Sequence to fold (460 residues):
Amino acid sequence: MIKSLFLAGADVFRLNMSHGSHADTRDRYEMIRDVERELGRPIGVLADLQGPKLRCGVFAEGKVKLKKGAAFRLDLDTAEGDATRVNLPHPEIFKALEVGSTLLVDDGKVRLKVTGRSDTHADTVVEVGGKVSNRKGVNVPDVVLPLAALSDKDRKDLEFVCELGVDWLALSFVQRPEDVQEARDLVRGRTAVLAKIEKPAAVDAFREILDVSDGIMVARGDLGVELPVQALPPIQKRLVRGCRKVGKPVIVATQMMESMITSPVPTRAEVSDVAQAIYEGADAVMLSAESAAGDFPVEAVTTMNNVAEEVERDPIYRQVIEASRTASRATVADAITVAAREVAETTNVKAICCFTSSGTTATRASRERPRVPIIALTPEIKTARKLALTWGLHCSVTTAVERFKMAVVGAAKVAREDGFATDEDKIVVTAGIPFNVAGSTNILRVAPVQEKLIYEGEPE
Fold:
């Protein structure tokens, strides 16, 4: 199934650490790497940490029905609950709450307003009633909670997946940049760190969070619970544009094709939602239950891939992307990357080929959103896997080169063998001299694909 999903268009596979044991995760990781070896194409793996989960306790009868206007208490008492109270085993929440704060239970189906509080309890009035059953989730949308983004479980999971070799680590419950920095300190450069924006506090601190993150996930699940649903589209647009401006990959996630959990076709609204994320310039769109537990996983991936390809063929897509492109010529590497895109778009060039060690050169090329394919060539399999998340990159693992002449030969070979160009075509090649120094892009050449022509007049 993993092979089928990859062939249908999936580039990165997410391992959700909320489910399964470490042994289960290791088995799935090895399956992905088996497919990678079989197909000879780099595949990205993203481990998604659970984060702290706020849940109420249990009820004597398993569930209760709360009526609008009724009083209801949450407290530290571990006794079974009833229609008047229930345990909430998080003393730090009670210390952070204020009179007037909102508590949302079971993804916002029940809404409570705080009328009084102490360090051991919160008295509330039911604003929106409904059924509440054992251990339902609790959200606190309008308070920055004094909770670390990493629980004890998360720390253990983080160390496990870093040793396993995942390419991205998604951090849940981010509220402030310090949450991301804590994870970075524990990761110690072993994987890229991606911040999930799913709390109102994270939206407010987005610029600072983006600065310390390698990528962003617009996680619309909890975000849609804690904010008015009508606020999500403009927030999504701002976050995607913010990531594009600095050239960091951004994923749009949650409920993208929810109906395909049980249906072989999506709704028209879902197709429009996916298309909108692509028109905005998202690097990736993500399926969750549709491919993890749904009845039509391959159909869901195929449909999403088809929508992406159709949107990117639309002339309006080009207009939108180019109108929102931010000029960036701050460094020589930026200028070379911009020049590569401009040359490719004003001449009959079939692809931009970037030699990259750390991935920075290819990421810069992706930020430009050129009209031609980008081939990212790297001697590092780890870099190729990480770049699988970034827009428009066809990643190829090559042998290390020491001379630009051989880099051009290698680029032409990949472009020809992978079907991007023929011997009669030309490509743009960018690289950094000396080779294998991160961020040193400083040379550009328009080169013929035909190998015997490459050497004509080529300097050493």
